[in-house]
Amino acid sequence: MSSPRHQRTRLDHASEVAEDYVEAIADAIDHAGVCRAVDLVRHFEVTHATVNNTISRLQRDGLVQTEPYQPIELTAAGRRLAVKSRQRHEIVKSFLQKLGVSEQIATIDSEGIEHHVSKQTLAAMKKILLNGWPKHD
Fold first, then answer.
1. Rounded Cα distance, 34 and 98, in Å
2. pLDDT per position as a tens digit, 48-78
3. What contacts 24+ positions apart, CB below 8 Å, involve 98-101?
4. Quick one: the chain helix, strand, coil %, rounded to 5?
5. pLDDT band for position 14 (50/70/90)?
6. How does it assemble (predicted)?
7. What values do phi and psi take at 135, rounded to 5?
8. Does the predicted TM-score (pTM) go above 0.70?
9. Which of 19, 20, 76, 132 has its CA 20 to 30 A from that of 46?
10. Distance between CA 41 and CA 47 in Å, rounded?
11. Using alpha carbons only, what angle is made at residue 71 by residues 66 and 72, rounded to the nearest 5 degrees?
């Protein structure tokens, strides 16, 4: 039996790929009006087979809709997950920058942290971003 800490980490890893993909699909649609598998191949620097397998899982999980040789579209659930993931990503990135981390490094680091940060930690980060650092006596 594993500890709750390790169980949460495994669950985080399980959803990490889905979150990254729906966020990338939403970004592609926002910027180009459409998302195709080749856009994801370029974005993630992976093979077409990897993208096709992942898209199949996302479709099975109700996050995307697509047909062979057609654009990839987000379902309502996929759009909600993309928005949630994008918001978490921006909070973490902004918080790291507030700590003095460069934008380039904050962008890179936030990619990993965003998937593992708890709701409580994310809320604390957001509070500091909105209200500044708490005063200690």
1. 34
2. 999 999 999 999 999 999 998 899 999 999 9
3. 98/128, 98/129
4. 70, 5, 25
5. low
6. Homodimer.
7. -85, 135
8. yes
9. 76
10. 6
11. 50
